[in-house]
Design a protein that fits this description.
Elements: H1 13-33, H2 37-44, H3 49-77, H4 79-96, H5 103-131, H6 137-163, H7 167-188, H8 204-209, H9 212-228, H10 234-243, H11 247-273, H12 276-292, H13 300-328, H14 334-341, H15 343-365, H16 371-398
Length: about 400
């Protein structure tokens, strides 16, 4: 007589809620101070904008470059420990900015903040993976994105109010937000199993690097992050040209506002009808279409419509990419896989920042303003086609390795 499989363990709602709440706090604390660094140091103190650009670039490089190690260490030490350590380090980095009155002290505080992010970023995703299963994982990642975007909306508003009081107060509040997240995680997140096997830890990175399927997946996803970075570069330039300095706020408002309102129901609707592969590929194509359509619009309202289409694609890509990373990962090495997968954001975003402005300037100089948008559309099409081919059989076979 066949034995019925044991019922799946009920999800740890408290721990999942803590991760979602902490994600809101992390994003809120970040956007509370980072967008206002240029306002304080450049507009108020008269620093060169290039200096603040260098500070922000180094923070991103530190965070994205070292996230791969933070994820691998989470497999050995446990995700909870790395998240808590990262929150404390990030809190110290942002709070220290309030006392940074020279370029190098600000740079040191920024490096500290980047290191904190590298410690908690991949372990946070590994914790979500450990607490969910294939039936609810993408939805939890979607909720993480919803509350993260809510933090992105709320953070700058509160930051602007605090900056009118004092920048040091702003920095202290930003750091304190991460300490609140520390308390939330410490009280609610269990000690998720560190993998004692010899493959866990830094040696797990070698396992990931030899996983050709996942390396190709990560490389292709970099193409999407090249597109997503244009919100800060080419889209911001075009919006400003059409509507003046306040245009960028509208762009971010539309993007984040739609994500807060629509990401979760949109993903649930998509999951009822399509496979993860089709959702991911469709999301990339929507984002590519949104950027490509900017070649035809000459009005700010038209640009915002393109931003909305672009953002709808992103709402599908982010949670599905995270869920597929968990699906493709080998059991016990979720941190290493998420850490390695974060390189797609670092590489794609870095390349996108580098070529976005160059393509925009080239298009203006040569009298071909459609050039950057058609280029981005083509990059998105190639990325979507590559992902569709790569994930054909991979998603089905990878599910076996997930501990649901």
């Amino acid at each position: 007589m066949p034995v019925s499989p044991a019922p799946a363990a009920p999800p740890n709602i408290r721990a999942i809620a803590a991760l979602i709440a902490s994600n809101f706090l992390m994003w809120g604390g970040f956007f509370l101070i980072v967008p206002l660094l240029s306002v304080h140091y450049v507009a108020n103190l008269g620093w060169a904008a290039a200096l603040i650009g260098a500070v922000l670039a180094v923070r991103q490089i530190i965070q994205q470059g070292l996230t791969v190690f933070g994820g691998a260490l989470a497999d050995r030490m446990g995700a909870r420990n790395l998240i808590l350590a990262g929150l404390v380090v990030r809190a110290l980095g942002f709070a220290a900015m309030g006392w940074a009155d020279t370029f190098w002290t600000l740079m040191a505080a920024s490096v500290l903040a980047g290191l904190g992010g590298a410690l908690f970023d991949a372990p946070k995703n590994a914790a979500v993976t450990a607490l969910t299963n294939s039936t609810n994982r993408s939805r939890v990642f979607s909720l993480m994105g919803v509350f993260g975007n809510l933090g992105m909306v709320v953070g700058p508003l509160i930051g602007a109010l605090l900056l009118s009081i004092d920048f040091r107060t702003l920095a202290l509040v930003s750091g304190s937000v991460y300490l609140v997240a520390f308390v939330v995680v410490a009280l609610s997140l269990p000690r998720l199993g560190a993998a004692p096997g010899k493959a866990a830890g830094l040696s797990g990175l070698g396992v990931v690097a030899r996983d050709r399927r996942f390396v190709l997946f990560t490389t292709l996803v970099s193409g999407y992050f090249l597109l997503s970075s244009q919100l800060n570069v080419a889209v911001a330039l075009r919006a400003t040209a059409l509507h003046g300095e306040g245009a960028v706020g509208w762009v971010y408002g539309v993007s984040a506002g739609l994500a807060v309102a629509l990401q979760y129901p949109l993903l649930r609707l998509a999951e009822r009808r399509f496979s993860p592969r089709r959702i991911l590929v469709g999301g990339v194509m929507l984002s590519a279409l949104g950027l490509g359509a900017m070649a035809t619009t000459q009005t700010f309202a038209g640009l915002l419509a393109c931003v909305a289409l672009f953002s709808l694609g992103g709402m599908l890509v982010f949670p599905t990419q995270q869920a597929l990373t968990a699906s493709l990962a080998k059991k016990g090495l979720y941190g290493a896989y998420f850490g390695f997968g974060a390189l797609s954001l670092g590489v794609g975003g870095g390349v996108g920042n580098a070529i976005g402005g160059a393509l925009y300037d080239w298009g203006q100089a040569t009298g071909l303003p459609a050039l950057p948008w058609l280029s981005f559309g083509l990059i998105g099409l190639v990325t979507a086609l590559g992902l569709y081919r790569t994930l054909g059989e991979s998603v089905r076979t990878a599910q076996v390795g997930v501990a649901d």
